[in-house]
Amino acid sequence: MLLHIIARGKIARSPEGELLDRYAKRITWPFRHSELPDVGGKVPPPTQTPVREVLLDERGKAMSSEEFAALLGRWRDEGVRECRFLIGAADGHGDEARARADRLLCFGRMTWPHLMARAMLAEQLWRATAILAGHPYHRSG
């Protein structure tokens, strides 16, 4: 299953960009990272179907790493070919995008900078795939 982060704004050369790259290289599943301008620009169409769309949103559900891994594993086992993770600009996502999404996900009740959220998502994708593979990196307590 392709894991695809689609984010508004440019990460460029930054500490957050380096973190994103570090974790992206560790993900053993197919992975893609796409950037859109802060405003305008269209979300690219899925490259594969069926597809699931996850919006990072303050109204979303917080999940443990194990729950997140289980969700990705279930979607993979159901034949989902692409899972898209959308990170909006400073104003987040509109009501229409929220209604269309398969899942709203948040990283807790705190507000995170969008560049940090991107790096954190890449780490969680790597952690989820490691959990599903039985890798010892993740230690649940």
From TrEMBL:
Q: Which UniProt keywords apply?
A: Cytoplasm, Methyltransferase, rRNA processing, S-adenosyl-L-methionine, Transferase
Q: Which InterPro entries match?
A: Alpha/beta_knot_MTases (IPR029028), RlmH-like (IPR003742), tRNA_m1G_MTases_N (IPR029026)
Q: Does the keyword Oxidoreductase apply?
A: no
**Gene encoding this chain?**
rlmH
Native species of this protein? Novosphingobium panipatense
Q: Subunit structure, briefly? A: Homodimer.
Q: HAMAP family, alphabetically?
A: 23SrRNA_methyltr_H
The name this protein goes by in its record: Ribosomal RNA large subunit methyltransferase H
* Pfam families to which the protein is assigned, alphabetical: SPOUT_MTase
Question: What's this protein's function?
Answer: Specifically methylates the pseudouridine at position 1915 (m3Psi1915) in 23S rRNA.
What EC numbers are recorded for this enzyme? 2.1.1.177
Give the enzyme class: transferase
